[in-house]
Structure to design on (365 residues):
């Protein structure tokens, strides 16, 4: 489906992420195939755990029929992976796969379900059945513990291929290391992944990791905070290796931590700008509920010619430039609206990251 000069961002299927994808240009989308992860709606924090479970399950089932239309609006008919592993129960996961695949297929969309080796039988069977009906193939997503024993993994992969009635050429292989640090673990995962059964024959070979921090507590206001894009640096080093059986496609978690924590929904984030540079993220720290700091930091960023990519680079950059200009208006009259919301700034940051990373990959020598 695509080679190593392509980009697979892994995104939670929330409004900010949907808008970030939808704001990409057609040219930018050609170099990207997203993997989206459905998540449960935000519960009412005052409810008991039992009532929260019932509430969010009902809410998700209500919006399930609209999921394929949401994807179509943000992404169109191009191929896209979707993962249900963050949903609460196996029956709900299976129901979601069946509903999304059926409605997406009727619309002519290129939806590809994601399967994990340890998925329950009910979910595995639903994914297999839906993939067969839609001729979509499957994305097999491997996680760190799958790579602990390559001989055992290869045995499980052979069993998976026999069970699914698919050849390697019908399966996208995703090795997802999740959170990665500068501790040498990445190299171990790389070495293990190169020994996967028939690696050269899979439809695609994708290698994912995430290095964005869990939160921004360690960073300070009014200081330059640069976070190395270790995931990007590691992948570039992986490409330079001369003994690889196959070069992998790059995947990351954009400007989000790779481990999803639902409890974070109940906390007010700081009004901070997350801006991807070529080899680092610039964190412009704000304060909780101080939305005017978005404008002040936007003005500083837009005025930094050594870092700002310009308002024509992406939707996200255009948004930053417009908010930078609004700063002078807001300072004169704070009653004027237009600081932007947490969601809109996350959209801008993700969109810029998507555009930059796709551009970097497409322009590799």
């Amino acid at each position: 489906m695509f080679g190593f000069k392509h980009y697979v961002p892994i995104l939670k299927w929330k409004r900010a992420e949907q808008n970030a994808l939808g704001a990409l240009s057609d040219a930018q989308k050609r170099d990207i195939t997203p993997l989206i992860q459905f998540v449960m709606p935000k519960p009412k924090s005052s409810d008991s755990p039992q009532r929260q479970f019932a509430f969010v399950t009902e809410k998700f089932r209500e919006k399930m029929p609209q999921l394929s239309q949401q994807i179509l609006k943000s992404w169109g008919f191009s191929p896209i992976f979707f993962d249900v592993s963050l949903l609460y129960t196996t029956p709900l996961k299976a129901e979601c796969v069946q509903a999304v695949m059926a409605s997406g297929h009727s619309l002519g969309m290129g939806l590809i379900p994601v399967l994990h080796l340890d998925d329950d039988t009910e979910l595995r069977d639903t994914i297999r059945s839906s993939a067969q009906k839609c001729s979509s193939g499957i994305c097999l997503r491997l996680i760190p513990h799958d790579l602990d024993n390559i001989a055992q993994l290869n045995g499980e992969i052979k069993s998976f291929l026999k069970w699914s009635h698919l050849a390697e050429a019908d399966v996208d292989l995703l090795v997802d290391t999740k959170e990665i640090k500068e501790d040498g673990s990445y190299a171990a995962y790389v070495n293990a992944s190169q020994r996967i059964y028939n690696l050269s024959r899979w439809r695609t070979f994708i290698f994912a990791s995430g290095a964005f921090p869990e939160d921004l507590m360690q960073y300070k206001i009014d200081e330059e905070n640069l976070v190395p894009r270790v995931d990007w640096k590691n992948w570039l080093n992986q490409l330079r290796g001369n003994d690889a059986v196959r070069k992998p496609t790059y995947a990351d978690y954009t400007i989000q931590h790779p481990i999803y924590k639902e409890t974070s929904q109940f906390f007010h984030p700081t009004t901070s700008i997350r801006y991807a540079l070529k080899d680092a993220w610039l964190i412009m720290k704000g304060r909780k509920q101080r939305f005017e700091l978005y404008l002040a930091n936007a003005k500083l960023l837009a005025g930094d010619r050594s870092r700002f990519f310009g308002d024509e680079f992406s939707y996200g950059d255009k948004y930053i430039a417009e908010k930078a200009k609004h700063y002078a208006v807001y300072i004169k009259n704070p009653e004027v609206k237009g600081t932007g919301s947490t969601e809109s700034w996350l959209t801008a940051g993700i969109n810029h990251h998507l555009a930059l990373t796709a551009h970097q990959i497409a322009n590799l020598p």
